[in-house]
Write a structure and sequence with these properties.
The complex is a heterodimer. Chain A is mainly α. Chain A has 20 helices and three strands. Chain A has a three-stranded mixed beta sheet. By secondary structure, chain B is mainly alpha-helical. Chain B is globular and about 130 Å long. The chains are: A mainly alpha, B mainly alpha.
Chain lengths: 544, 680
Amino acid sequence: MEALTLDLLIFLPLAAAILVAALPDRHANKTPRLALAASLGVLLLAAGLAARLPRAIQRHGAGALVGERNCAWIALGDRSPDTASPGGAPLLNGFELRYHVGVDALSMPLILLTALLVPLSVACSFQAIRTRTREYYAWLLALTTGMLGVFAARDVLLFYVFFEFTLIPLYFLIGIWGGPQRRYAASKFFLYTFAGSVITFAGLLYVAIRAATLHFDSVVSFDFQRLLSPGALEPREQIWLFAALFCGFAIKVPLFPLHTWLPLAHTEAPTAGSVLLAGVLLKLGTYGFLRLALPMVPEGTLYWAGALGALAIVGIIYGALCCWVQRDVKKLVAYSSVSHLGFCMLGMFSLLPVGLSGSVLYMVNHGLSTGALFLVVGMLYERYHTRDLDQLGGLARQMPTLAFFFMLFVLSSIGLPGLNGFVSEFTVLLAAFHSDVLGRAYGALGATGILLGAVYMLYAAGKILFGPLRQPPHTPDLSSGLARDLTPREIAILTPLAILVVLLGVAPRLITDPLDPLLHTQILARFHEAAGPLWETASAAGGR
Amino acid sequence: MLLLGLTTTAPLSVFATIPLWPLVGAVLTGLLILTRRRPGYAHGPVLVGVALSAILSVLLFFDLRSLGISTAAAHSATPAGPGVTWTLYHWISLGHAATLRGQWLPVNFFFDALTGLMLLFVTVVSTIIVVYSIGYMRDHHGQPERGYERFFAFLGLFVFSMATLVLAGNFVLLYLGWELVGLCSYLLIGFYYPRPAAAAAAKKAFIVNRVGDLGFALGLFSLYCFLTAGADPLVGPGENPLDFATVFKYVGRLEPWQVTVVALLLTCGAVGKSAQFPLHVWLPDAMEGPTPVSALIHAATMVTAGVYMIARCTPLFALSPVALDVVLTLGLIGAVLAATMALAQYDMKRILAYSTISQLAFMFVGLGCRAPDSAIFHVFTHAWFKALLFLGAGSVMHAMGGVIDLRQFSGLRHVLPHTARTMLIGCLALAGFPLLSGFWSKDELVHAAFARHPAVGVLLLVTAGLTAYYTFRMFFLCFHGPLRVPDEAGPHAHESPPVMTVPLWLLTLGAVFAGCLGVSVRPGAEAFLGLFRPHGFVHHYLHASTLGTPRHAAGGLWIMYASTLVALAGIGLAWARYGRAPVTDPDARTLGPLWRLWHARYYFDELYDYALVRPLRGLGRLFCATDNYGLDGLLWAIAAVPRGLAFGLHFLQRGALQTYALGMVIGLVALLLLWNWTVA
């Protein structure tokens, strides 16, 4: 039953996408509603799965999976016993790709985030998308399948398939419905991320093959179970493997200096694209690091953690300062992702329990607040046809409701205590400060992000909302049925996000309570066992 | 009061709702905004909420001892000296690890005498100011101003945040209140957001505060690190590492340098929030907000949060002489700088703002001299008379049609009799006139300063004289001399309605009598005027708090007489020079360039702009250019390799048969030659 729910969750959007694309002309005007219904179905299914998680954890322990389905998909070669080489080690005789999905406490928050953001981004496109609507919604729904698949996959190759699959719908979403530079942005985005993930793929293949040999198995399996503890990989191997995994994931995150695709892609993408890009797709990178890189190559992680922490800090400061001088508010929000994801990585590579859980929380919170900011910016753009900070000003008087939401999400984004952003920012910085791997300098430098975040976000909010009224001539353009202030539809889009922003600010343990034990047993434990001596000495030295 | 009968049975959970009611009021008023009308009763929910928490706070103030604060703990609390922690719920998890079992960042409240005293004046002054705002936030016809309900919603939110800050039982919740009051300050300074000056001032206030908060946050991080580091951390299971109770329990076992680091970083936060040198620049600009806000947030309550925090952390600061000296030095610099700047301003509210900075600096000096109870006592008295002064200035502004420049009016005592009388009392209290509240608390600070070092004491006395002088310069320029009224005031400027003057008189009562809490009346030769002795009730009351039992230097009776003399001299000098409200400023002539330096506020704003803001923005531009040209250029170069290869190779396949034929011939010849050569 649960497995069926998960199957439905993943493939309902794809089925809906095909249906939408095949819709005859005379029903074309029903497309948006159909897409919305499908995405709401996804949200319901995800909520249903989430409701089962606590009990599953109670019954099966921290790493419990809900909706697990494990069946053979592609298998080449066989496990015939006579293939053992004379030396005793088996010859690799084939490989096995399984359709193995399931949701645990780590992927659940991200699946919920995706399932929440998709209906919102469908709903925000009702007015904005006027051309080729059927294709648009079809691609959007197909993208949903890709994103959900990544988080649900329990097989590395399946993970990779979904991971790469997300590129295709997004390529079209940016390339067809984007801004003036959409083609360049789409190709740059596609090539950049693709080039990186190919290297990651090579790394994953290598681990799978090595794991098979280390386990004396003649068939190369890609299951998480196997690959997340691939056996005694040499430290040298691990260092190289981490670098390979880094290429794909760091570009996706994006970590400085591999971030240059992001401002362009975010700015040029249609609102829904930006929301999903910032809200979910960047998390594929951080999720990849956390799910695969850390447990798979703990010693490699330890080796590189300092460097990654440093890159994260450069990203925090660099991104923030870039934000401050932007004139395009969408680009500003885009650059803010560089800064924010720096925090996320900083927490992760502190390799402390509080840092890891803060980092996951940061993924969710960033998805909520940055997604919301993109939505608000999109709503502004639909009315004023500009995102230039110098052309807009004093809109709070005209649009009090928008001003309220904008300020709320800005405050969430700059980590105001009581809202969601604070919890993750605080725990992440606390972890970086406390970490033996990173240390106080990292924490202190990262903390400047608290200040810079306020500087650029309040700069943008002040320019748009406050001061004397400034708007381009002949605007706001209300020809498409918009009101001067937000319409009920737009309020309905922003309200769930606003509620969550407050809720996760006062009750972050909704996410972290199931998550913490899992992070401990599945990820941190790997550092204790695999890198035992190194880890012990490091913590002993740091503790003194 | 009827409720008094119930107090002995009221448990802590009732008092823990003190922050809740203003929040409920704020939310209800916020919901009124949704109706899109501008109801004149929008203040109702907030007023009720704030009044409710004021009543609870008064009860709490008198009830603390019966709650067992002075003895050991009740309820599920950990004893931290005299004080009870009441936990609402576990807020943030510290991760799941063996060493962190049972450790959380909770939402909990800490009750001790300091909490009681702070809550008392915070909520009571807030209630008075909310009442005043009902009159102030209306136009001449009694119609609510634009944004009326928004204003009250923010006020309610502010009281919630301030009460949370004061009640917080751990550093993270303190930080929450700390940031939330900053947010309210931001929202309320920017209340008249279409004015560019207001929008800029709001942003400046928030960001300068964040500079301090950065230090504060780092202080929390280091505190956490020091307490939990190592194989055998100080904090055991079941103790939340950032609770006041835990921190103060183990702070004595930290290394001295660790204590100093933490204390200095926390000081950063206090300096930002309390607008002390060098982060004082935001407070004068904050006067762009509505006057009740200046009275409540930027004089009486929020800006004292820094002083409160350092006082709360007395067990920590007491262990670090270095940090105490830093606090002392910053206080001294701030007191003198702000007082001199106040001498050369014309904007009434800005004069009061500088005087606030100066008075807060007095409290810092007190903290630095190991007299936190005296500092808190000054916080307490200052709240009443400074709120009074600001509300009086607001009343003037209300009557003058929004004009607040002292050059534009004078002689207002004829048109604003209530305002003039209450302002006079407020000014006397601020100037340290004997027997008024400001006198008692300031005297204690000066006394503590003399005990620390005579030079410190002398500096404070001089500053006290300056205070008396600039306060009465302002008073005389406003209320004395011939009646002059600006055009904006309309034909008949008149006194404010009772809803504004009654709060003024209530605060006047506070300005006169709040000091009595710190004085005991017992005749004797060693008492002031043979009757009054300092270090009275408040100090005994505060012993049941984390302040502990400070030592008081004996004697110092002459200081009281000296400071009386200094205050009178300042007032007299002001009378001599400004008593007739001259149109040309005599000081500007006499002091020349020095006066202009003060008038330009020592050019701090310009300095920060050139030294920090512009370079950082420049760096931002540089980074952006790096992105667009440097990093993308590099990318382009990498992408150029395959492109170059393709460009090179595409000549070979242009579909021209002759080229192909030529290629074939050349290849054939080459092959033949190769064959020939290898065979032969």
